[in-house]
Amino acid sequence: MYLIVSPVIYLAAGIAFYWIVKMMIYEEVESRLNVERRDFEAYLKTHDTWSNSSYFVENKIEVVPVFGQFVNRTIFTDTLINNRYEDSADPFRQLTFYTMIGGVPHKVSIRKSMIQSYKLIEAISVAMMIFLALLLLSMYWFHRKLSDKLWQPFYDTLSKIKQFDWTKENKLALPPTEITEFNELNDVFEKMGDKMQHDYRSLKEFTENASHEIQTPLALINARVEQFIQSKDLDAEHTYWIEEIYHASRRMSRLNQGLLLLAKIDNQQFSTEEIVDFKELTENKLNDFEDIINHRNISVEINWMGHFRKKMSPALADILLTNLINNAIRHNHEHGKIHIQGWPHAIQISNTGSELKTDPTRLFERFKKESSGPESVGLGLSIVRQICDTSGLSVFYNYQNTIHLINIADKNEENSQ
Fold first, then answer.
1. What is the structure's pLDDT at 341?
2. Do 350 and 404 meet the contact criterion of CB atoms below 8 Å apart?
3. Which of the four pLDDT bands, split at 50, 70 and 90, describes residue 225?
4. What is the uppermost EC class here (predicted)?
């Protein structure tokens, strides 16, 4: 801001200084022209005549008789007169007035050269501009040095905050400074850092405890319900209600796992990163789902045009592809198709399926689902989007002619193109 405002102010000051000097010089020249006029009038009063052989030092005087009507007024003007020695037009300041000589009205023009005055104005202006430029540079240098010294503690604090990882045990420690305001700011940052670490540890413990404590009774409920289902002493009605309880408990278990997974992703508990080869990971996942794919008679077509590699959490990459392939199978038809394409910076999974009645972008919202089946909890695509946002990936869902298509791409490569 200083570099923008200062040149404007200095330029305005330079222009104002130029016009002030010019007005002062013009005032001085016009004052001397008036003196020459009084000398001229005194000469006429004494001799009552004028001869062009009469000279006044440093002045040129032109006396011309006037015939006809004229306006008797005195004016100052700028004019140019050819220099017969240098073949150039020189600037002059001219005083014009009318007077009677020998009973005949004459127009008198007294001129004074402005060459030296203009040279003086130019010299003063150049000197002023140089002085202002040097002043601007020196002020910039001074403020830069002063700012660097004053703001160095702030930049040190900023650097430490950028390196601070609240998921680790190391506390945020900021060194004291000589500036009271920065010390107060550092105290606030340290308290905030401690609060963030405390909240992170509390939330991490909660998700870990919830994951263990809730899954255990749910697993017990499922086991007991399975025993009841296999019992031969139950009639059809009791069997129906026990199966409903079984499906509800399984759905609650998946819902619990999904919400806890989203919480872990939000809290950056998947911090370990390495280069993940999506081509290799996809092929391994297809092998894991081979039985169910064959059971539903789904044909799989794979077309790789390069290895898609991305530095991210291997666990999140595994969950990402598991959800995508699982969705492509679950929401497919019997004898349907799955088509997987891969590029150096993207992967695309498409599958046949039922007509989509919901806005594709809303399927990434939590608990928003297209299927009404009891096996769906509406968190699969929400987990996919959360993983993509955390890992620097973009996700795009499209539907055309019974084909559901999901495209995963590297954001860094998209921005560089």
1. 92
2. yes
3. confident
4. transferase
Mean pLDDT of 77-99: 79
Domains of the chain: 2-122 (no CATH), 180-265 (1.20.58), 272-416 (3.30.565.10)
List the one residue out of 113, 31, 37 whose CA is nearest residue 80: 113
Hey, what are 360's tokens?
């594709």
The answer to whether residue 12 scores a pLDDT higher than 70 is yes
Pairing of strands 403-410, 393-400: antiparallel
What percentage of the chain reaches a pLDDT higher than 90? 5
The residue type found at 147 is: S
CB 120 within 8 A of CB 25: yes
113 Cβ partners below 8 Å, 6+ apart? Answer: 58, 90, 91, 92
More confident call, 406 vs 45: 406
